[in-house]
Specification:
Number of domains: 2
Number of strands: 15
CATH class of the largest domain: Alpha Beta
Number of helices: 11
Bound molecules: phosphoenolpyruvate, manganese (II) ion
Helix content: 25-40%
Distance between the termini: 36 Å
CATH superfamily of the largest domain: Aldolase class I
Largest sheet: 9 strands, parallel
Radius of gyration: 21 Å
Oligomer: single chain
Structural class: alpha/beta
Shape: elongated
Length: about 350
Amino acid sequence: MLIVMDSHASAAQADAVCKEVTAMGLTAHPMPGAQRTAIGITGNKRAVDASRIEQMPGVARVIHVTAPYKLVSREFHEEDTLVNINGVKIGGNNFAIMAGPCAIESAEQIDEIAGILKKQGAHILRGGAFKPRTSPYSFQGLGEDGLKLLQAAGKKHGMPVVTEAIDKETLDLVVRYTDIVQIGARNMQNFSLLRHAGRCGKPILLKRGMSATLEELLMAAEYIVNEGNADVILCERGVRTFADHTRNTLDLSAIPFVQRNCHLPIIADPSHGTGRRDKVIPLSCASVAAGADGLMIEVHTHPDSALSDGPQSLFPGQFEDLVKQVTAIANVVGRKLN
Ligand code: PEP
Ligand code: MN
């Protein structure tokens, strides 16, 4: 349920409504806007009798939110959420590119690629220190040492960093070194991790599970926002289909769906979305044209010897081309590159 206050309503009137909501055993989420204040209500197990609230001074109307997700829905919050990471903005008209290797492999590797990517126009540096791998025998990441290397490379080359936490223990570590915490596809419905992420104090990049519906993705985001963390960036990274010409099928229609129904920014990851280097530039262009708020791209100086996801990693020269092409498309669709 959403209570919309009259544009002339006083702060005291909004306060009284919140108190009444709390007295009904529900949770009030005041959302002051440019024109008027709205108050979201969660916690109702069944339909709430809104007549008492409708009569209160300053209340313009009460809207029943039909979507199962509440705090992340457009019905609750009309304007786009803008996530600001140390001056790099994602959401609204702002477009940002996250790039870097799948995994941090050494100090030299992450430092070299960070220097190249910064010059080529990347805004945020990515790199995994805790890798969720299909095989326990595959490279699992450098752990805390990797986090230190990523943080140092980000600082040296002037880019915020994003890296994945795979459980509660790694989340506690990751928040000490990163600017954005990534929750990966395999953990999208790890509800306990989502709750912790909602309390960790850092913006979250939430990737769509490989067989998750968009309602499930938005419900996962709801877990994070419900813990008080409104800085959530969603990521379409491809889903499993019968297709065998790609690793996954990048679901571009997810972008306009999410933007219509949810106020959080959504970026696309054509690297994991296709799994093949030759498809990353065309699908990046298509993602921007479809309205994505940003991109996540894997780049490696020596993809053929990469310890993780080499076949989908771009060579730096290809990343340079990608930035040129998506910049041109971003201009056409009214996006502002950071
Ligand atoms: C990654 O970004 O390296 C990653 C493992 O992504 P996903 O969770 O989308 O597979
Ligand atoms: Mn990867």
